[in-house]
Design a protein that fits this description.
This protein has 253 residues and is α+β, with helices and mostly antiparallel strands. The protein is 25% helix and 25% strand. The strands form 4 sheets. It has a 5-stranded antiparallel sheet. The protein has a 4-stranded parallel sheet with strand order 13-12-11-14, sandwiched between helices. Strands 2-1-4 form a 3-stranded antiparallel sheet, with no helix packed on it. Strand 1 and strand 2 form a beta hairpin. The longest helix is centred in the middle third of the chain and has 14 residues.
Length: 253
């Protein structure tokens, strides 16, 4: 079978389409025939050696979705042909951190495409816990780009303790993690506001269920204050803004 692999770390031009062995699922694993995968910023960073793969050639790709086409020993709940989204975060599932849903602190924590072969291939083997059933109504192109950004946004919101009825402000809704945070916030029944430099992206967010949006280049802190303030702010770009850092101007409660 074929896989897009890095043969160097000089950037995206280091990708080559190579022949690779077809993997076989072990106990507790399924093999997924990839239907769609997506290029993530993580893949671009790895292509530049940030971080460098331990071995070359290396198959990148964190995001992907497809159909189960082989099942390992002891696997229950999956059948050949099941449509799944791949969760790219791998951990031992047994340590105290995993049991407390803090898998990023697991000593065995890995991300597909960064620490182990990823989704830019025809078939991939993953633990069954990382195979999430694809909703029938979800388009394949959405499912194939869903995993990493959504998992990141979900972890951020879970750490904030966002509750139904609270107000969430998502800064820079045009980004993947921010867009996922907006959708998750709406699903969690929060009142969601967004910012963007693009009026079209603000209009899109409102169409998706956001209450309103503000210009990222303007004084959106004051505008948010006029709306009653925000309980939770998601800014995954980590841009320092005086209005967010100075208590006298901060609109967040």
């Amino acid at each position: 079978m074929k896989a897009w692999q890095l043969n160097d770390t000089k950037g995206i031009e280091s990708f080559e389409l190579n022949d690779v062995d077809e993997p076989e699922p072990g106990p507790g694993e399924v093999r997924v025939k990839i239907s769609h995968s997506a290029l993530n910023h993580l893949d671009l960073w790895v292509s530049r050696g940030l971080p460098a793969p331990k071995h070359l050639p290396h198959t990148t790709g964190a995001d992907g979705a497809g159909r189960v086409d082989a099942i390992g020993e002891g696997v229950a709940g999956f059948e050949i042909g099941d449509e799944v989204i791949i969760d790219p975060s791998i951990s031992c599932g047994q340590c105290a951190n995993c049991r407390n849903d803090d898998i990023v602190y697991c000593d065995s924590f890995q991300i597909l495409g960064e620490h182990r072969p990823g989704t830019f291939t025809e078939k991939i083997v993953i633990p069954t816990i990382n195979a999430v059933r694809k909703p029938e109504a979800m388009p394949w192109e959405v499912a194939g780009s869903f995993g990493l950004a959504t998992a990141t946004a979900l972890r951020m919101l879970e750490r904030t303790g966002l509750k139904p009825g609270q107000t969430l402000l998502v800064v820079g809704v045009g980004g993947g993690v921010s867009a996922a945070a907006m959708h998750l916030g709406i699903a969690m029944r929060a009142r969601v506001y967004v910012t963007s430099r693009s009026p079209g992206k603000i209009d899109w967010a409102v169409e998706q269920g956001a209450v309103a949006g503000f210009d990222s280049g303007g004084d959106f802190g004051s505008e948010m204050t006029a709306e009653g303030g925000a309980d939770v702010v998601v800014d995954n770009a980590d841009v320092a803004r005086p209005a967010l850092r100075r208590p006298s101007l901060s609109p967040w409660r």
